[in-house]
Amino acid sequence: MREDLASALAGAFLAGDWTAAGLVTSGTRVLRGRRAWLPALSREVLELYPRAPQDRPRELAAVVLSRPAAARARKARPVSRVVAPTRMVANPWHLPVLDDLSQLAALLGLTQAELDWFSDPKHWARITTSAALQHYRVSTRPAPSGAVRVLEAPKHRLRTVQRLLLDRVLDGVPAHDAAHGFRRGRSVASFAAPHAGRAVVLRMDLEGFFASVTVGRVYGTFRTAGYPEPVAHCLAGLVTTVLPHRTWQALPRPDGPALLDAHWRLGRRLAAPHLPQGAPTSPAIANLAAHRLDVRLTALAQSWGGRYTRYADDLALSGERSWRTGTSRLVDLVTDVARDEGFRVNERKTVVMPRGGRQVLGSLVVNDQPRVRRSEVDVLRAVLHNCVRHGPSSQDREGRADFRGHLTGRVGWVAQHDPVRGARLRADLERIDWTR
């Protein structure tokens, strides 16, 4: 059977009566005549789909093409085509109902032409060399490791569309309980707290976290939420991008063979449709795309008598004294699970921290309870002391636009995790004469 016939039959089947006789009648309209193989094909389709898959026209077309009866339709061609309306058949999290693209456009306040432009189904914005026609602005920042971090920030209108999707759709889909990054009510402190006072803490890092989330995985996330195939494809297009090859070639490269290998792998990821680091929707989608990873690593940690949490690309596992002799095996298992789920562990950042040394997760020391490092508190105390004695301008060496707000934020960070020290620092902050 030809692919165009399978697609036409799938549309006709979904638009008609979902019974054996109804499918035969619908297929007869597409072919302008009854064929001997149609009744058998109808029965085979109904065996797999007792109910009409109104949200999966492409899947149904693939199934029609694969049925044994379809092999008898080698020369048949579609004479007419019916586009069946799609609809949500499941809505597990009670999200906005989006049966088709017109409802998605209405939700986002876009015309159909604008929806096509931003979702880019024909990849025009992804292959053009004109920056004016691209939806993202690309920039780089040096990472603490010396690697080059590539940021892809959506332009104003697409950012507005993505924020609407975040507020109206993505915020309604729950992430796994082990995920603590980019979630209301969660923080670095909640990520680190389960590992406080543990005999061994293992910290691992995922390489190229956002870029590792492919468009196929994003599409699967929206399908899991119940959206029909055309809507899920469009949603995936709205929140993913491809970095043009010329843009990649113009970016700076890090020094060192290990960093160059990771940089090369990043380029491979960015050359395919992926989540852009810089889009407001990417953190939430990345959390959802990592759901299976979180499920498996939670089960792995529990099987070892331990605990697991994740903050964006940072993985933390902890256990009791028995872990001191088995962590290399555990590291291998975590690495295998991550690879199986489409991620890669950054081996350079894997750290095993026994209780005898300092155990740090997310810039917090967790040997007893999550606290800001003493050295960081001491430096902040010295800065505040000098601000009191010599004026804040003497300490604002970087010329910050809001130095007062910067210091207030740093004091608040300490106070959040250590109220006693935070209170002392806040008292010093209040003594500063900001007119000096």
Q: Which terms would index this structure?
A:
alpha+beta; single chain; 4-stranded antiparallel beta sheet; 19 helices; 436 residues
Please, could you describe this protein's structure?
It is elongated, with a radius of gyration of 27 Å. It is an alpha+beta fold. Helix 2 crosses helix 3. The protein has 19 helices and nine strands.
What oligomerization state is this entry in?
Answer: single chain
Tell me the major beta sheet.
4 strands, antiparallel
Number of helices: 19
What is the N-to-C order of secondary-structure elements (H for helix, E for strand)? Answer: HHHHHHHEEHHEHHHHHHEEHEEEEHHH
- The class by helix and strand makeup works out as alpha+beta
**Could you tell me how far the N terminus lies from the C terminus, measured between alpha carbons in angstroms?**
82 Å
Beta-strand content estimate:
5-15%
Low confidence ranges? none
Write down the overall mean pLDDT. Answer: 92
Measured on Cα atoms, how large is the radius of gyration? 27 Å
What does the overall shape look like? elongated
Kindly report the spatial arrangement of strands forming the biggest sheet. 4-5-3-6
Helix content: 40-55%
